[in-house]
Write a structure and sequence with these properties.
This protein is of the alpha+beta class. About 25% of the residues lie in helices and about 35% in strands. It starts with a helix and ends with a strand.
């Protein structure tokens, strides 16, 4: 098992990580890298407006994403996951193999 810093390094290396202590089955994190967003890709009108105003592309910064479930149990993706203090202090992080 790993410390939080080791889990972050694994994310940077393209690995998926999880915590043994998480209640939800199958939950894990991955790092979505930065990407140039093009206006024609946008389904979100507010984002599309910003991209168009920026000349047709804008940088989407990298972010940590979580595969999780919503309140009804449906599978869901959380973009921009933030670690709790418990997450950062625990040493039960695991690298998932593909």
């Amino acid at each position: 098992m790993l410390k939080f810093g080791d889990a972050i390094e694994a994310l940077k290396a393209g690995k998926k990580v999880t915590r043994k202590g998480w209640n939800g089955k199958g939950m894990f994190l991955w790092l979505k890298p930065a990407v140039e967003i093009k206006a024609e890709w946008c389904k979100d009108e507010a984002l599309k407006k910003l991209v168009v105003e920026n000349g047709g592309t804008i940088l989407g910064l990298g972010t940590i994403c979580m595969y999780t479930h919503d309140g009804t149990g449906r599978k869901a993706i959380l973009t921009g996951w933030l670690a709790s203090q418990s997450d950062m202090l625990m040493e039960d992080w695991i690298i998932l193999e593909d």
